[in-house]
Amino acid sequence: MVLKTHQIMIWVMIAMLPGLAAMTYVLGLGVLWNLAILSFACVLCEALIAFARGRSLTTTLHQLQDCSALLTAWLIAICLPPFCGISILLIAAVSAIGLAKQAYGGLGHNLFNPAMVGYAVVLVSFPADLANWPELAQASPDALSGATLLTEFRYRQGLTTEEFVIAFGQAIGDQKLIVFSFLIGGLVLTYRRLLAWRVPAGLFAGLLLASLFGHDSGSSASLGSAWFHWTTGGFMAAAFFIATDPVTHPRNARQQIIFGLTVGILIYLIRGFGAYPDGIAFAILFANCLTPLLNRLNLSKTGSNRESSTAHV
């Protein structure tokens, strides 16, 4: 049975519930605060833009029923530290819905992942506020952005990776609760065939490939193993819920693998050498730029094959 757009969106949000529950358990009720404010702001922004374009109330309500604005709000919410300021949440919502989605013509026409645009805008604009995660000393790691735990890993003052894991064992354990909760939801979507499985597979493979050159057996200069990066920060949520946005990743199977490999490699490189501790948003947005090219290359190849077949006939 082919599901409608709003049914797919609802399934994705249902699959996110285990991860959101784990985040709330580890990080507190501030996660739900972000979720509630962003949900209201994204839906309101979508409605106001529809009215500004002269659409009727009936048409606007029909547009809102696809639940895409609500899902965007949920994806931004898992990126942000608990109890973000209302102004930050509103800017993220307007950037995601107004700038990244509606400015391109609405659902299905956007080039960039709306949630990652909204998150990237506030990350660049309010870096200090978005670094305000619960202290590791309180046994609470960061959620999707990975700002606390990954920053500690980067500036670990001569510790080997094994020593770091021992020193921050409780925080890493709490982080894995969040990570594997999102993995469960991602596997549900994969089983239901509601995502292109080659994209997350490419992310895992790309990060693994990059780690072969950066891990160096875990010395104090190591950039970290693939397992550490898979289970730290927002990699798992990004692999199954964000990078798999069907509008902004390639349509063809082979190109989807290339897309995923690109994101996985970039995440590792940005975490190791970039100015931001995680880099998921920037990796995905960069790969979004490649999507039209990858789609065009696939069309060119398909057209060449058809011409070759015609010539043989």
Can you offer a commentary on this structure?
The chain is mainly alpha-helical and 313 residues long. It has one domain: Orthogonal Bundle (Ammonium transporter fold), CATH 1.10.3430. Helix content is 70%, strand content 0%. The longest helix is centred in the last third of the chain and has 33 residues, at 280-312. The two termini are 37 Å apart. Residues 137-147 and 307-313 have low confidence and may be disordered.
List keywords for this structure.
mainly alpha, 313 residues, 70% helix, 0% strand
CATH C-level category = Mainly Alpha
Question: What would you call the shape?
Answer: globular
Unreliably modeled segments: 137-147, 307-313
Task: Give the termini distance in whole angstroms.
Answer: 37 Å
Q: What sequence of helices (H) and strands (E) makes up the elements?
A: HHHHHHHHHHHHHHH
Query: How many helices does DSSP assign?
Result: 15
Helical fraction equals 55-70%
| Main sheet record | none
CATH-assigned fold name = Ammonium transporter fold
Radius of gyration: 20 Å
Total beta strands: 0
What proportion strand? under 5%
Architecture in CATH? Orthogonal Bundle
Please, how many domains? 1
What structural class is derived from the secondary structure elements? mainly alpha
What's the rounded overall pLDDT mean? 88
